[in-house]
Amino acid sequence: MRSGNLKGQQEKDFFGNLIRPLEPVNRKPLVPDSSEIERNNRARSAKLRVAQRNK
Questions:
Q1: Considering the domain boundaries, does residue 5 fall inside one?
Q2: What DSSP designation does 50 have?
């Protein structure tokens, strides 16, 4: 998501601007809080990353 596409390679247009089909919504991934980890032990390694698709 940071590079803008699923392959991890940055693509540029004719003018040198980055082409990013995916735009990250959050800078940092969302992690579960302590109450969620107490209820669900497997959630301790979960990280939610959110991106919005550009047209």
A1: no
A2: -
- pLDDT tens digits for 36-53? 999 999 999 999 999 888
Q: Distances from the Cα of 29 to the Cαs of 17, 42, 46, 47, in angstroms?
A: 26, 17, 9, 6
Residues contacting 7, CB < 8 A, separation 6+: none
Q: Give the pTM.
A: 0.59
Q: Is residue 8 part of a domain?
A: no
Identify how many contiguous H helices and E strands the chain contains and give both numbers.
Answer: 1, 4
How far, CA to CA in Å, does 38 sit from each of 23, 27, 34? 33, 26, 6
**Using an 8 Å Cβ cutoff, are 35 and 12 in contact?**
no
